[in-house]
Amino acid sequence: MPFGNLASRLQETFKKLSGRGKLSEKDVTAALREVRLALLEADVNYKVVKTFTDKVKERAVGHEVLSSLSPAQQVIKIVNEELTELMGGTLSKITLASKPPTVIMMVGLQGAGKTTTSGKLALLFKKQGHRPLLVAADIYRPAAIKQLEVLGEQVGIPVFSMGDTHSPVDIANAAISHANSHGNDIVILDTAGRLHIDEDLMEELVQIKEKTKPHEILLVVDAMTGQDAVNVAEAFNEQLGIDGVVLTKLDGDARGGAALSIKTVTNTPIKFAGISEKLDGLEPFHPDRMARRILGMGDILSLIEKAEASMDEKKAKELAEKIKRAEFTLEDFKDQLQQIKNMGPLDQLIGMLPGMGQLKNLKGGLAVDDSHLKSIEAIINSMTVEERQNPSIIGGSRRRRIAQGSGTRVQDVNRLLKQFEQMRQMMKQVSGMGKGKKKGRNMLPFFR
Amino acid sequence: MGWRNIFRRRKDDEIKNTTDTLSTETVSTENTETKNNFFQRLKSGLSKTRQGLFGKVESLLTGRTIDEELFEELEDLLIQADVGFETTMYLIDELRERAKRDKLKEGIQLKETLEQVIVSIFSENAAPLAIGDNSPAVIMVVGVNGAGKTTTIGKLGYRLKQEQAKVLFAAGDTFRAAAIEQLETWATRIGVDIIAHKEGSDPAAVAFDAVAAAKARKADVLLLDTAGRLQTKKNLMAELGKVYRVVSKELGREPDEVLLVIDATTGQNALSQARLFNEVVPLTGIVLTKLDGTAKGGIILALSHELKIPVKLVGVGEQNEDLQDFDPESFATALFSD
Ligand SMILES: Nc1nc2c(ncn2[C@@H]2O[C@H](COP(=O)(O)OP(=O)(O)O)[C@@H](O)[C@H]2O)c(=O)[nH]1
Ligand SMILES: [Mg+2]
C-alpha cells in the first residue's frame, strides 16, 4: 500500500530531522523529498511538483521553527500554506452578465461529467431565483441529448434542443434567441466531450465561443485525472480561454492532485466541486480543504493545527495572570502537559521551547517523555483538589497515599513535587522580569 | 464458428500482422474492405499515440552514458506517464540490475531493456478474452462513472458481430439519465438485440432477464452494461455484487469475463478502483479506454505489476471500430512517444 509506506517513510524522515532554531537546507530537503512523493501519489503533475517544491524550499530554508513544532512539521506547515495559497481563495462566483442572458459554456474531455454538472449548475441558479435554460449541444454521443432532457425534467428546468442534425454552433445561437424570447436569464451550453487534440472539434468550440460570447467558459475535469491534466487544461485554455474549472467526482477517494496541476498551468480559479451523482451535489470549491486532501497528511496537519490552537492567546493571557499572582497550580500544570502531549514528540518539543530549555537544565531534569508524562498525570490525578491547589499540605502520609493511588513510587511523587516547586520559582522570576518591559518576550511559550 | 477463436487468433497472428503493417507503414490489401478499414482505423488510432516511437526515451538516452542521473531522468518519464511511484521504482531497479548484469555502458542500450521489462510485466499474466468455450458467454462490464463502459460494449458488440457471433446487449445501467437509450442507440446502430427495463428499475432483474434471454435465444455472447459507480460507495458496490451473483446463479457458473474499464487519463486512483472492484466482483481483465488522447495510461503497468490483472482491450476512439486487442509492445512504445 503506497500510502502506508508513505506514512512510515515520513515518520522515519521526521525522526532523523534534528534541527533547532532555523530550518537548515538539509532538513528542508529531506522533508520535501517526502512531500514530493506525497504530491506525486496524489497525481500532481511532476513538473508542477518540481516548481512547487523549489518554491517552498526557497521560502523554508532559514525559516524560524515555531516553538511548538518540529522542523519537519514546520516544513509541512509551510508546504500547506503555500499549497492553500496556490489553490486560490474561494471564488465560486459566476460572473453574471449586466445584460441577460448570462451564457455559460461547459467544456471538457469525454466522460468528465459535463452534462451532470450542467444540470447541477442549473439547479443551483434556479434555487437562487434565476430562470436558467439548459442547451443540448452534444450531437455526437448517443443519447446525450436525451440525458440532458431527463435531467432537466428531474429538476424542472427547460431544455433547449434541436436534435442531432444541426451543428452545435447553430443550436447554441438559436438557444440564445430562445432564452431572449422566453425570459431565461441564464443559458448553460452542454457541449460534447472531446479530446483537446481533436482539431476539428476544438475549432467547433471556438466557433461557439465567437458566436455566443459566453461570460463563463467552465472546464470540467475529473478529479481522478493523472499527469495528463496539464496538457488538457493548457490546450483548452489556450484555444478557448477558460474562466474557471469544475472538479468532479470528488466524492470518491481520489486525492485530486489534478486540481493543483490545472490551477498552476491555467491560473484560473477552481469554482465548484462535484460531490455526488445527485443533482444537488455541487459545492463551492474549498481551496484549503483541497490542499489538505492533495497533501494527504491529515494527521500531521491536524497536529500542527492543534499545536497552534493550544497557543490560543486568551488562554495564554489567563495563565500569565495566574503566574503573576503565583496561582499556578498542579491542576494548571496538568492541563499544560496535556496540551503538549497533543503536539508531538515531547522530548524534542520541550527542548525547543524557549524558556523550557532552562527547565531541562533543572536538577534531575524535568521528566517529559510520554511514559513519564503518563505517570505525572497519574500522580496529579490521585491528588485531591485541595492538594492540587496547595501542594504544601502534602505531607508524608499523603505522599504514600498518592503513590499508591497512581501506581508510582513515593520517590516519584517527591520528585514531581520538587520539580513543580522549582518551576514555580522560575516562573516567578520570569514574570517578574517582564514587569515594566516588553511583556511576554522571554516567557514560557505556553504563556505567550 | 469463426468468432470463437478470433481473440486467440488475433493475439497470435493478426496482431503481429497489425504490428508489421504499422512498422512497415503499408496497409495490407489482401483483406476484405471491412478488414482493410479496420486496420486503417487501428493505424490511425495508434498513430496518434505512436508519434516518434519511443521518441522521448530515445532522445534522452542517445549519446549518454549510463549513470544515476540518467536513471533519475528515466524515472521522471515514467512518472509523467502515470506509472506511479512504486512501479516506477520497481522498473528502475530492474533496469539498474540488468544494466549491471549485462555490463551496459551506453544509454541507448537501456532502451531495449526497458521495453523488455515493461513487456514482461504484461506477459506474466496475459490472457485473451475468454469467450470461446461457453455459450452463451457472458461479459460483465464495470467501472467508475464516465470511464467508457457503454461505448466499449458498443464497440465490442460491433466487433463480435463482424465475426458472425450472435450478440445480445443488456442495459444494466438503470440509474444514469438516458443510459438505457445510449446503449439502445448502439444496439440499433450495429444491429444487435437488447434487453432493457425502465430507468430506475433493479439492475439485478435486468441481468436475470438478460441471461435467461441469452440462453433462450441461443445468443453466443451476452454483454452486460452496469451503471458507473465510484469504488468507495458501499451500497452501490453491494448492488454490483448482487448483479454478479444473480448472473452466476441463472447462468450456472460465473460470468466468463468481468472487465474493469479504466480511462487512460486516470492517475493513481485506478489502483484503488481495481482493488475495490475486485473485492466485490472478481475481475478477469481490464479495458483501457481513451488511448487516442495524449494520456499514456501508464497506470495499467502498476495494475499489472501489483494486482496481476491482465489488460485485454484498448479503446482508441468513439467509432464502431475503435477497439483493439491490447498489445504490450505497442503500448510500451507509445508510453514514451511525444
Ligand atoms: N476519445 C474517446 N472517447 C471515448 C472512448 N471510450 C468512451 N469514450 C467517450 O467517453 C464518454 C463516456 O463514455 P460512456 O461509454 O458513456 O461511459 P460510461 O459512463 O462508463 O458508460 C462518452 O462521451 C464516450 O463517447 C475512447 O476510447 N476514446
Ligand atoms: Mg454507461
Would you give an account of this structure?
The complex is a heterodimer of chains A (448) and B (338). Chain A has helices at 2-16, 25-41, 46-60, 71-87, 114-127, 144-155, 168-182, 199-212, 229-240, 258-266, 287-295, 298-309, 313-324, 330-341, 346-352, 356-360, 370-381, 385-389, 396-406, 410-434, and strands at residues 102-107, 132-137, 159-160, 186-191, 216-222, 244-248, 270-274, 282-284. Chain A is an alpha/beta fold and 448 residues long. Chain A folds into 3 domains: 4-86, Four Helix Bundle (Hemerythrin (Met), subunit A) (Up-down Bundle); 102-295, P-loop containing nucleotide triphosphate hydrolases (Rossmann fold, 3-Layer(aba) Sandwich), CATH 3.40.50.300; 301-447, Orthogonal Bundle (434 Repressor (Amino-terminal Domain)), CATH 1.10.260.30. In chain A, helix 2 (25-41) crosses helix 4 (71-87). The longest helix of chain A has 25 residues, at 410-434. The radius of gyration of chain A is 30 Å and the shape is elongated. Residues 1-5, 344-367 and 433-448 of chain A have low confidence and may be disordered. The model of chain B is unreliable at 5-43 and 45-53 (pLDDT under 50). In chain B, 52% of the residues are buried. The structure holds guanosine-5'-diphosphate (GDP) and magnesium ion.
Brief overview:
The complex is a heterodimer of chains A (448) and B (338). By secondary structure, chain A is of the alpha/beta class. Chain A is 56% helix and 9% strand.
